[in-house]
């Protein structure tokens, strides 16, 4: 199926924003990458801010609905975290530059508004699930918010730090992808050591 002009623009803009950063990206570069003229680009998106905001919204919304559904499942807490890790790494693998977009975007005024769209039940469900499991003796005593941040960090950091990881370890792209493939099981092993009594 042929891409619409808007889809071509969004793909081109994402690529240019990621390569050049928000400040370095130019509308002419995006138009050239999309194979259209600048006037047509401005017809679809009046400004660079509007274009970035559209991409940011799309990327932001890929994260939270899927993982919130996992948190609400009635399954053992450790199993819930395993599913969370699998889903989170899958989303990141399919959208490896989403963390860059979110980190850049949340520092803009419109990005701060999107933070309010994060379901409040996400952290509350995680923390509540932890305390219930801890009361049943299934997991050790830890600080649940610290645990949530650690789980997210272990998943996100390889994508944010990809150039550093590749440089320090001399990984080529194929080796880095293999590293990411193995990441879920590695994170789960850490979590077992942290949580199992």
TrEMBL record:
InterPro entries: Homeodomain-like_sf, HTH-type_TetR-like_transc_reg, HTH_TetR, Tet_transcr_reg_TetR-rel_C_sf
Coiled coil: none
PROSITE patterns: HTH_TETR_2
Keyword vocabulary terms for this entry: DNA-binding
Domain of life: Bacteria
DNA-binding region coordinates: 26-45
One MF term in the entry's GO annotations: DNA binding
Gene3D superfamilies with a match to the protein in the record: Tetracycline Repressor, domain 2 (1.10.357.10)
Spans traversing the lipid bilayer: none
Residue ranges constituting the HTH tetR-type domain according to the UniProt record: 3-63
Descriptive protein name: Transcriptional regulator, TetR family
Organism of derivation: Siphonobacter aquaeclarae
